[in-house]
Design goal:
This protein is an alpha/beta fold. The protein folds into 2 domains: about 180 residues, Rossmann fold (3-Layer(aba) Sandwich), CATH 3.40.50.2300; about 325 residues, tm_1862 like domain (pyruvate-formate lyase- activating enzyme), CATH 3.80.30.20. The protein contains 23 helices and 17 strands. The strands form 4 sheets. A 7-stranded mixed sheet has the order 2-1-3-4-5-6-7, with helices on both faces. A 6-stranded parallel sheet has the order 8-11-12-13-14-15. It is globular and about 65 Å long. Bound molecules: cobalamin and iron/sulfur cluster.
Length: about 600
């Protein structure tokens, strides 16, 4: 029996046939929960699913990447054959997924030639024209960072007929030509698109398929959830595809979209009633100004949240803000990305705060009872050379020495990899920022994802570091940080030695790939054989231990009684009501 729904939202691995390939992905996904095939689907899958559900459409999420990771014998072709939705939706949110998305679209078109395929997400929004010109399997691209309403209109058009020209933000083929949809629908508020975990739980139960809804491979062991505080950013970090300038270029967003704090609190309550895992607040909560922040804390405080909380700041907040956080959450952790210890490098990247304010932030956080602060540093920045990267390790040493008692300071270093983001200032004008871009088109990036090592995937080099130097600087600084973490008891000696050994092995391996692979006729074969051996022995993160990212998790991960009640009683929350703005007849644009 074919499985019918209106929309099947499919998230694919970045490289579709990754299980047949041997690739040294290195540290490209070390500081996020995903593996190097980036199995996490966009948060927007959940908001679209809930929005469409309230309109009466049937939506199913399928995380093909997680299924392929968890079961070597899982066959995507025979699995996808079973589905017969009205529309397939694939996310091309991250540029990294271009290979997987094109291969999946080809497979779906072969299996179901009559079913149209739509792409969406930031990367699809930017490359919409090239997608429709180069990949005939793809029928539509919905542009913009809020696709809920356009996708509902597209589904109605497919189901009941109509002119796709009336679907806002839609690019598509008409005859021989391409209609480029202008991005006219750019909501200022996210209130109509809540992230309702109750809906997700019901979907898992309805489809009896937890793997498809898992955001990443090991989610059951580390059931972290996220709430999105806003879309857009007030900052302008030069390589970021979500910066103020990039969002204007890519999705026509000129102002940040916020969410009513009460709705945000509703989202959090849809988590804490069922799950005990950590909650990550995506986006700096101060971006809406101090009053909006206070409203948020006021709405969250009565929930008496016991889950571990992670909040991120894009620049150091004042002590009053930290006190508010401390009075709202029982267990809170903070993170900030200084990117470099060198203030000049940080400024050139687009984060103009100085080390004094960073250190003041750490001190204040410690004094209000913050448990842990993660510090994210990056390699491949403007004005940054190898010496500067190693200087970051020295700076971390001095920070840990000065503030290490009373707060757990956890520094990470990772490369800007694999790509400078499309639509970012550097992508648009690389020379101005001291960068040289190796690839520009989607097709070039698709090929790059098939490279043997992560260094060959990089779409850039800088005036200060070529790709090999970026790799060496990354590995050397990671070695420095793991030794430091071992000195401070964050890693055992064995754990730290394993990180160091792996970083050294990868450096050596890449050198041998370059010399042997290119020079001798059988070099490539020998490289592949030694790589096979290496890859079999080494799995997981390459410049840190993945577990270093984790906050403590309550061993009883679920509130079983509440879950059972939810599943037995069905609908029960205010999010399920259909907001007035969901009137499908409403004019858009
Ligand atoms: C939060 C976040 C994350 C979270 C993940 C959150 C998640 N699951 O969505 C974490 C920290 C894990 C993460 C990781 C990564 N991220 Co990130 N991330 C962000 C951040 C800060 C906010 C994202 C956001 O606001 N999303 C909300 C909006 C934009 O999307 P959405 O609601 O999920 O989806 C809507 C639309 O995009 C669209 N849509 C999306 N998919 C689809 C599919 C269809 C069919 C349709 C119709 C529509 C559609 O409709 C949705 C509903 O309205 C942005 C920076 C920024 N300021 O935007 C970077 C950003 C998106 N990330 C980026 C990158 C590069 C990555 C990584 C590849 C980095 C790395 N090497 O590790 C990984 C990939 C992770 C993976 N897939 O496994 C780049 C992407 C640039 C690009 N165009 O490729 C950004 C722009 C900036 C950056 N460099 O960090 N990220
Ligand atoms: S990297 Fe910079 S511009 Fe991008 S989302 Fe973070 S703070 Fe904003």
């Amino acid at each position: 029996m074919p499985m019918r729904s209106d929309l099947l939202l499919v998230h694919v691995p970045s490289v579709f046939d990754f299980r047949e390939r041997l690739t040294l992905y290195g540290p490209i996904s070390d500081v996020i929960p995903s593996t190097p095939v980036f199995e996490m689907y966009p948060i927007g899958f959940a908001t679209m699913s809930h929005y469409l559900d309230r309109l009466g459409f049937k939506v199913r999420i399928l995380n093909l990447a997680v299924k392929m990771l968890r079961d070597r014998d899982f066959d995507p072709e025979s699995y996808l054959k079973k589905f017969k939705p009205a529309l397939f939706g694939l996310d091309l949110h991250w540029l990294t997924h271009i290979h997987g998305v094109v291969e999946a679209a080809r497979l779906l078109k072969r299996l179901h030639p009559e079913i149209p395929i739509v792409l969406g997400g930031l990367t699809a929004s930017y490359f919409h024209r090239e997608i429709l010109e180069s990949y005939p399997e793809i029928d539509y691209v919905i542009r913009g960072d809020c696709a809920e309403e356009p996708v509902a209109k597209l589904l109605s058009t497919i189901r009941w007929g109509g002119d796709p020209g009336n679907v806002p933000n839609l690019s598509y083929r008409r005859g021989e030509g391409i209609v480029e949809g202008a991005i006219e629908l750019v909501p200022d508020s996210l209130d109509d698109f809540p992230l309702n975990y109750r809906h997700m739980i019901r979907q898992v139960h309805h489809h009896r398929d937890l793997t498809s809804y898992s955001p990443f491979r090991k989610w059951l062991f580390y059931p972290i959830t996220a709430v999105l505080t806003c879309k857009g950013c007030i900052h302008d970090c030069v390589t970021c595809g979500g910066s103020l300038s990039a969002m204007k270029r890519v999705v026509n967003r000129h102002r940040i979209a916020f969410k009513d704090p009460k709705i945000l609190a509703g989202e959090v309550s849809s988590i804490i009633n069922y799950l005990r895992g950590p909650i990550f607040f995506v986006g700096d909560c101060l971006q809406g100004g101090p009053e909006h922040f206070q409203e948020m804390m006021k709405a969250l405080r009565p929930l008496r949240i016991k889950n571990e909380i992670m909040m991120e700041f894009f620049s150091p907040p004042g002590k009053e803000v930290l006190k508010e956080i401390a009075s709202t959450f029982e267990h809170f952790n903070l993170e900030i990305s200084p990117e470099s210890h060198d203030e000049e490098v940080r400024k050139a990247f687009g984060r103009p705060f100085d080390n004094r304010s960073l250190e003041g932030f750490i001190e204040d956080a410690r004094s209000v009872g913050c448990r842990r602060m993660d510090l994210f540093f990056m390699t491949g920045l403007p004005r940054q050379d190898c010496r500067s990267v190693l200087g970051t390790v020295d700076y971390c040493r001095s920070l840990m020495r000065e503030f290490g008692s009373g707060i757990r300071l956890v520094p990470f270093v990772s490369p800007l990899a694999p790509f400078v983001d499309p639509g970012s200032d550097v992508f648009e004008e690389p020379g101005k920022y001291g960068y040289r871009l190796r690839f520009r088109t989607l097709e070039e990036h698709r090929q790059a994802m098939l490279a043997l090592t992560w260094v060959d995937m990089l779409n850039y080099e800088t005036r200060w570091m070529d790709r090999e130097t970026i790799a060496v600087a990354t590995y050397e600084s990671a070695i420095g940080l793991s030794l430091l973490k071992s000195e401070h008891g964050q890693l055992s000696r064995r754990e730290s030695e394993a990180v160091v050994a792996r970083a050294r092995a990868e450096m050596e391996f890449m050198t041998s790939c370059r010399t042997e692979g290119a020079a001798s006729p059988d070099g490539e074969e020998r490289t592949t054989a030694s790589m096979k051996r290496y890859m079999r022995r080494n799995r997981g993160a390459s410049v840190c231990r993945k577990e270093e990212l984790n906050m403590p998790v309550n061993p009883f991960r679920l509130h079983l009684f509440n879950l059972a009640r939810l599943l037995l009683t069905g609908r029960e929350d205010s999010f399920d009501q259909r907001p007035a703005s969901l009137d499908p007849g409403r004019q858009t644009g």
